[in-house]
């Protein structure tokens, strides 16, 4: 599950991550944002499919996509594999934010978008302008834990619970030796260091999912509705998951939230959550899967948006409660003729058992089988 971020990735021009079939990436997780995309050897209008030894049914052409940085490491890994197998394809993914990805999709720029939260009703209505005979639908694709990372030298096994986290992120608890934190960590020497909480500067599905958890598990201490925009008081802001992780790593006394892959790649210790289970629960892919398995599909038709509320208050052993599922947003019908084949082929691969099997090594949780099966059927029906 250890990730490496090669400096060569950062040498790409600032903007969309353009990964051509000839470019082999051994690292995942940069925040390059080159909206110009990258070079392509195949005109976007030419799309045809063929099978290869990898089992991927290739399509030719190029597509643009953007959105969630939470799924960035997974997307880059999938794109690398797909383009190695399909040299006639170019898939450009710009890691921006869930909010920006939806905007790009609804403006007709992207073939699909990544979002850590399902489309709102007004966003579905807007999507009908670009999905000629259909609308945007939510296809869950990447699961995983939202890790609570911290920087507190000498403290390597920190336990917190939902009310304490809510108070920390709302500036109600301001020092690490606060009585509430000490009660959750008996026998641990906690310094009087001031707590520096770090949150997302940009609208983020990661923020939306964290605040859903805080509102669901600590209603009395988190008075704000869940949202992609941060509402808590105080703290420092940083752009994207990588920015929050970088600020936590360099700031003693800090605490922040980001996907587990960022904690793993930056060697940032993570909080165990006291849920009322037999033991505090660590942020791992297996423990996140146990939480996500409780999700219920609440979307209709081809839309497979999920309700994760049961995970937030679970007391089941080894079930990590702060989870997210990242969606790929695509037109169920009315896709552009020059992008449909490649969009459908790529999403078929990433939702397949082979594609999902790659997630754990990047710090993500594969979708439960019953959900993955529904996603595969929805992708097959894209038109």
Automatic annotation (TrEMBL):
The keyword Transmembrane is assigned to this record: no
SUPFAM superfamilies with a match to the protein in the record: Periplasmic binding protein-like II (SSF53850)
Region annotation (Disordered) ranges: 31-53
Record's signal peptide: 1-27
Coiled-coil stretches: none
InterPro entries noted in UniProt: ABC_phos-bd_PstS, PBP_domain, Phosphate-bind_PstS
Keywords for the protein's UniProt record, in alphabetical order: Phosphate transport, Signal, Transport
Keyword Signal: yes
Domain PBP: 54-352
A Pfam entry, by short name: PBP_like_2
PANTHER family: PHOSPHATE-BINDING PROTEIN PSTS (PTHR42996)
Family from the record: Belongs to the PstS family.
Name recorded for this polypeptide: Phosphate-binding protein
């Amino acid at each position: 599950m250890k990730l490496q971020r090669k400096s060569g990735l950062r040498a790409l021009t600032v903007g969309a991550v353009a990964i051509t079939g000839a470019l082999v990436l051994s690292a995942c997780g940069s925040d390059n944002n080159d909206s110009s995309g990258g070079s392509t050897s195949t005109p976007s209008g030419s799309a045809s499919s063929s099978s290869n030894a990898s089992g991927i049914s290739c399509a030719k052409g190029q597509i643009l996509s953007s959105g969630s940085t939470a799924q960035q490491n997974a997307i880059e890994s999938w794109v690398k594999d797909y383009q190695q197998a399909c040299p006639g394809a170019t898939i450009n993914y710009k890691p921006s934010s869930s909010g920006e990805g939806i905007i790009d999709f609804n403006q007709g720029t992207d073939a699909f978008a990544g979002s850590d939260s399902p489309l709102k009703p007004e966003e579905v209505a807007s999507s009908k302008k670009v999905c000629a005979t259909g609308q945007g639908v939510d296809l869950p694709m990447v699961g995983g834990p939202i890790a609570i990372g911290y920087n507190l030298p000498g403290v390597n096994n920190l336990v917190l619970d939902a009310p304490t986290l809510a108070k920390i992120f709302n500036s109600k608890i301001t020092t690490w030796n606060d009585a509430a934190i000490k009660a959750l960590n008996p026998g641990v020497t906690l310094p009087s260091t001031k707590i520096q909480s770090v949150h997302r500067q940009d609208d983020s599905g990661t923020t939306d999912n964290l605040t859903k958890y805080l509102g669901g598990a600590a209603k009395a201490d988190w008075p704000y509705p869940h949202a992609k925009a941060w509402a808590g008081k105080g703290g420092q802001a940083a752009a994207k998951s990588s920015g929050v992780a970088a600020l936590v790593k360099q700031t003693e006394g800090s605490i922040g939230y980001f996907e587990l892959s960022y904690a793993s790649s930056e060697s940032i210790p993570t909080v165990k959550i006291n849920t009322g289970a037999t033991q505090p629960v660590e942020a791992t892919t297996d423990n996140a899967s146990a939480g996500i398995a409780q999700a219920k599909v609440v979307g209709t038709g081809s839309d497979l948006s999920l309700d994760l509320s049961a995970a937030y208050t679970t007391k089941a052993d080894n079930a990590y409660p702060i989870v997210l599922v990242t969606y790929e947003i695509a037109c169920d019908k009315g896709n552009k003729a020059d992008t449909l084949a490649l969009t459908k082929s790529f999403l078929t691969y990433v939702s397949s058992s082979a594609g999902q099997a790659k997630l754990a090594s990047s710090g993500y949780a594969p979708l439960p089988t019953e959900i993955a099966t529904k996603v595969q059927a929805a992708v097959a029906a894209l038109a």
